[in-house]
Amino acid sequence: MAELTTTQTKTTRAWVLHPDIKTDAGRRAPAQALEEAVSLAVALPDLDVVGQDVVSLPRAHPGMLFGSGKIEELGTLFKARDVELVLVDGPVTPVQQRNLERAWKVKLLDRTGLILEIFSDRAATREGVLQVEMAHLSYQRTRLVRAWTHLERQRGGLGFVGGPGETQIEADRRAIDTQLGRLKRQLSKVGQTRGLHRMSRAKVPYPVVALVGYTNAGKSTLFNRLTGAKVMAKDMLFATLDPTMRAVTLPDETEVILSDTVGFISELPTELVAAFRATLEEVTSADLILHVRDIAHPETEEQASDVEDILAGLGIPEGVPRLEVWNKVDALDADALEICENRAARDPAIFLTSALTGTGIDALLTAVSAELTPPKTTQSLTLTHAQGRHRAWLYDQGVVTGEVPTDEGAELTVEWTQTQSARYAKL
Question: Which of 120, 181, 197, 303 lies 20 to 30 Å from 297 when distance is taken between CA atoms?
Answer without folding.
Answer: 120
